[in-house]
Amino acid sequence: MKEYNLKIRERESYDVIVAGGGIAGVAAAVAAARGGAETLLIEKSVNLGGLATNGLISWYEPLCDGQGNQMVKGIAEELIKLCSQNSFDNIPKCWGGSGHNASRNERYSTYFSPTVFSAALDEFVVNSGVKLRFDTLTTYPIMNGNICEGVITESVSGAEFFGAKIVIDATGDASVIHRAGMPTVEGKNYMTYVAHYCDVTGAERLCSDADFSAFRKWMGIGSDMFGNGHPEGMKRISGTNTDDITEYMLTGKACLLKKIKSMDKDSFDIMTLSFMPQLRTIRRLQGAADFNAVDGETYDDAIGNCGDFRPDGVGKHYQIPFGALYNGNFPNILAAGRVISAPQGDGWEVARVIPNCALTGEAAGKAAALCALSGYSFESIRSEHMDKIFV
Ligand SMILES: Cc1cc2nc3c(=O)[nH]c(=O)nc-3n(C[C@H](O)[C@H](O)[C@H](O)COP(=O)(O)OP(=O)(O)OC[C@H]3O[C@@H](n4cnc5c(N)ncnc54)[C@H](O)[C@@H]3O)c2cc1C
To answer: With a threshold of 0.90, does the pTM exceed it?
Structure first.
């Protein structure tokens, strides 16, 4: 190991710092700011939305149970409205959508434009009073025992320290949680690479049906969520090692290029490549409780309800426990989004989709503001104040 004498500029302190501006981080930061907390949101790219926008996952899984009952509410619903407000959608009329293009959809879900949605997320966050820092990597939490005093960031401004009463890890890879010394579990991914493209056939159809949700197409390479299509012999990576990620991205793009070379070059264009690795699971917290997606089970510390996006999940009703968002030995760090404590299997499959990342983000943000401003502990929220957290 080499040692460097690094100068770290000390900057202002916040009630709440949120690391990562994906869907979970956006929901967490907005909820914290609405709760009255001085909130900083740190995002390593220059666009909000994470996998949903930069990662081109432009399908908002359902907020309903598939039998006409709305399950997820709160910021998750504000965001499905926001993603469909300024561009195409296919939300059915019965769920308040325009019904335009909805012949391909029955649930409270939608396709959306990742670019238009991301632009709208800036306004959503800034108008809520959140202080936003783009192009800034949260590198290390500064720990005093098990208490996090704030985070070091790296950006063109150099290394800086921001103090915080509560830190929320919404990084998608739990790097803050991991570097704080909290227990984590790594996932294993099949190789998936998705680009967006448009083609002449789609353009011709667009002229008659004006359905941009069908015009912007996914070019999916590799595996689906069940492992079908995973390249033979390729190792399944977690995504906690840069060499693995580089190889994963090179393989995905090489497969894409192979496919492109087999196509008529005058008939299509690749609209955009993904700006982040499309890994479904990287690393997540081992929390005070696990979310296991048990149909019909309710919890005293439930943060809210959700359904199941999978075809065999129609009619299933779940609650996510607040205990999945923290570990009892670390009093001021919360998890939000796909890094919550949800073992690989049903719990993790359900927790990781966009509406449920918004749900856990919102609950984390509300809890963080309460703790920062009222001095409550996570345990006291869990036993006495869940009415203030429930979404
Ligand atoms: C192939 C694939 C298909 C999917 N299909 C669907 C689907 O159809 N519908 C659906 O609803 N869900 C789908 N999902 C799941 C869903 O898109 C994601 O799980 C969800 O969007 C994750 O949100 P998040 O905010 O928790 O994390 P992320 O989206 O990963 O956001 C994390 C953010 O933190 C930033 N960040 C990371 N580290 C740092 C750091 N150290 N400092 C500062 N910023 C940092 C990142 O740049 C990113 O913006 C899919 C996922 C994959 C991979």
So the answer is: yes
